[in-house]
Amino acid sequence: MSFAKNLRDKREERGLTQGELAKAVGIAQPQIAKYESGIQVPNAITVVEIAKVLKTTAEELVQ
User: Fold this and answer.
1) What gap in Å lies between CA 59 and CA 63, rounded to an integer?
2) CA atoms of 22 and 33, how far apart (whole Å)
3) Dihedral Cα 13, 18, 20, 22, nearest 10 deg
4) CB 55 within 8 A of CB 13
5) Which domains are present in the chain?
6) Any residues with CB less than 8 A from the CB of 54 and at least 6 apart, and which?
7) What pTM did the predictor assign?
8) How many Cβ atoms are within 10 Å of 48's Cβ, its own excluded?
9) Are 32 and 23 in contact (CB under 8 A)?
10) Tens digits of residue pLDDT in 2-61
């Protein structure tokens, strides 16, 4: 699996919109859309923050 797919799956499992996730992480919603579409990959700090919000690990997101 890719980071993009893992991110979308985990976000949807938590019942969050892209906007809700972005707000919780402190970034703009279009960034989440770019991550989920595979256009961009977040830096390690952002991955950790996203993982915290999604109640998962950074490792699970990037495998």
Assistant:
1) 6
2) 9
3) 120
4) no
5) 3-55 (1.10.260.40)
6) 10, 11, 13, 14, 16, 21, 61
7) 0.93
8) 14
9) no
10) 999 999 999 999 999 999 999 999 999 999 999 999 999 999 999 999 999 999 999 999
Tokens at 59, concatenated: 């490792």
Question: Quick one: DSSP state of residue 30?
Answer: H
Helix axes 18-25, 29-37, angle to 10 degrees: 110
From the number of C-beta atoms within 10 Å of its C-beta (0-12, 13-18, 19+), residue 45 rates as exposed
Q: How far apart are CA 53 and CA 63, in angstroms?
A: 18
Spatial separation of the C-alpha atoms in residues 54 and 19, rounded to whole Å: 13
Q: Quote the tokens at residue 38.
A: 């595979």
Q: Which two tokens stand for residue 61?
A: 């997101």
